[in-house]
């Protein structure tokens, strides 16, 4: 309800006085103010909507906007697609043990929002005849081979390989040797990187295979990210054989017939998740930029 102010009452009184002066003594009195549509300070709910008269000339003579110099506004989608961070999981696997770790690492990476894991093989250096003589299984085509130049597209890198006398296998070493062009221009400097390995025996290089590979990262200026003991109690259990170390996930292959244990796969998945968290932490915070 609209309240009456003194000014509104005064205006209404003058309007009523002028209206009454138009009537003679024989003319019946006008209706009280409350019966006027919208009279006084009490708006009527039945007041008809205001009628706006249109200019007939405007319909017949529309305005010519040919000379309008206004700049058209381009509609922009306010929801921009955000690119996910990508961790390249680059590995060599002869009998499938390292590949099993790689697939679980990918699972762990993708537990972190905004990060995806991408699997790649490094090129084989052995001939088909040699591989056949060693009874090496044929590799599937679901994982592509990577070239050295593609490494620059990654936000983080995890390299996996079996051991050869306590250091990386020849296939992975050949791949690192092909990165000389990237090293020359330091295109991988500042990229977080880590390792995961496979060995045939318990003393076969679970630690040395990883730490001897750190020289590759150092020359490129990459940032080495070990897992430490972030796996928690799983790093201390001694009741069963388990590969892996503070340097990264690992698996014991034995003569090639042993499959990765559940604990080894859990550690690999943990490394993927941990690496994804570290890669996100290394990204610049653009929220305030």
Relevant terms:
7-stranded mixed beta sheet, 13% strand, 9 helices, 289 residues, alpha/beta, NAD(P)H dehydrogenase (quinone), globular
Q: What secondary-structure arrangement, pairings included, does this model have?
A:
Layout: H1 6-20, H2 56-60, E1 85-91, H3 97-109, E2 115-121, H4 128-133, E3 156-164, E4 167-168, H5 170-177, H6 180-185, E5 192-199, H7 208-211, H8 214-220, E6 223-224, E7 250-252, H9 262-282
Helix pairs in contact: 3-9
GO molecular function: FMN binding; NAD(P)H dehydrogenase (quinone) activity
InterPro entries: Flavodoxin/NO_synth, Flavoprotein-like_sf, Flavoprotein_WrbA-like, FMN_Rdtase-like_dom
Cofactor: FMN
What does this structure look like?
With 289 residues, the chain is of the alpha/beta class. The chain is built from nine helices and seven strands; from the N terminus they run ααβαβαββααβααββα. Strands 1, 2, 3, 4, 5, 6 and 7 form a seven-stranded mixed sheet that branches. Helix 3 crosses helix 9. The longest helix has 21 residues. The radius of gyration is 39 Å and the shape is globular. About 7% of the residues have low confidence.
């Amino acid at each position: 309800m609209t309240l009456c102010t003194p000014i509104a009452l005064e205006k209404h009184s003058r309007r009523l006085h002028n209206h009454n002066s138009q009537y003679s003594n024989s003319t019946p009195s006008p209706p009280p103010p409350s019966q006027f549509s919208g009279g006084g300070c009490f708006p009527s709910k039945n007041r008809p909507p205001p009628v706006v008269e249109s200019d007939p000339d405007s319909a017949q003579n529309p305005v010519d906007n040919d000379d309008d110099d206004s700049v058209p506004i381009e509609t922009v989608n306010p929801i921009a697609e955000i690119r996910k961070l990508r961790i390249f999981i680059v590995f060599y696997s002869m009998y499938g043990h390292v590949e099993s770790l790689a697939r679980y690492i990918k699972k762990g990476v993708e537990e972190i929002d905004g990060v995806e894991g991408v699997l790649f093989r490094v090129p084989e250096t052995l001939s088909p005849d040699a591989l056949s003589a060693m009874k090496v299984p044929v590799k599937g085509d679901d994982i592509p081979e990577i070239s050295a130049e593609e490494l620059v597209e990654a936000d983080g890198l995890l390299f996996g390989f079996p051991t050869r006398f306590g250091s990386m296998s020849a296939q992975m070493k050949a791949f690192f040797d092909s990165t000389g062009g990237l090293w020359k221009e330091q295109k991988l400097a500042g990229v977080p990187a880590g390792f995961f390995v496979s060995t045939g025996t318990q003393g076969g290089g679970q630690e040395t295979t990883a730490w001897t590979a750190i020289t590759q990262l150092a020359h490129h200026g990459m940032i080495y990210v070990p897992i430490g003991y972030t796996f928690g109690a799983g790093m201390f259990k001694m009741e069963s054989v388990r590969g892996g170390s503070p340097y990264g996930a690992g698996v014991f292959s034995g003569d090639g017939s042993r499959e990765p244990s559940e604990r080894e796969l859990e550690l690999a998945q943990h490394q993927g998740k941990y690496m994804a968290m570290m890669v996100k932490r290394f990204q610049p915070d653009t929220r305030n930029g």
